[in-house]
Design brief:
The relative contact order is 0.11. With about 150 residues, the chain is mainly α. A hairpin with a 2-residue loop joins strand 1 and strand 2.
């Protein structure tokens, strides 16, 4: 296409560089799996929460099972957390007390908490009856955040 003697081009498709789409999908999936468990989370809801088309979820991760596996990768490296805890203890605390405090402080991170809650719910809820599932989720929602 020319305009006033200049050639211009219209680029289509994906922009150069990182788009952040994959990370947005992972974040949305962690939140959806944490809130609804594996069975209750849907590709469409995850895509909606990430602000993308469901086809992009399939493009990056394939199926729901592969997305779940990718989402459950912890945002921390446990061996690094443990090593840091072993070298940075409060002199007044026992090793056990310090390790528990470290574990609880890591749990307080939203990403880690969501991953652990999701794993726990996904392990427990599929075996439960629909009525039991509803009671467990209601009970969890009523517990205050710490």
């Amino acid at each position: 296409m020319t305009w006033a003697g200049r050639r211009t081009s219209t680029r289509t498709g994906r922009r150069a560089g990182e788009s952040g789409t994959r990370e947005a999908i992972l974040g949305a999936s962690r939140a959806q799996f944490a809130e609804h468990g594996y069975d209750g989370a849907t590709i469409r809801a995850i895509a909606r929460a990430a602000g993308v088309d469901p086809a992009l979820v399939h493009h990056y991760f394939g199926d729901k099972e592969s997305l779940f596996a990718a989402a459950m990768k912890l945002p921390v490296i446990p061996s690094e957390v443990i090593t840091a805890a072993l070298t940075q203890g409060d002199p007044g605390d026992s090793l056990g007390t310090h390790m528990v405090r470290t574990a609880l402080s890591v749990w307080e991170s939203a990403d880690v908490r969501d991953a652990f809650q999701t794993m726990l719910r996904s392990a427990l809820i599929p075996a439960a009856s629909p009525a039991d599932r509803s009671r467990m989720l209601d009970r969890d929602r009523q517990c205050p955040e710490h």
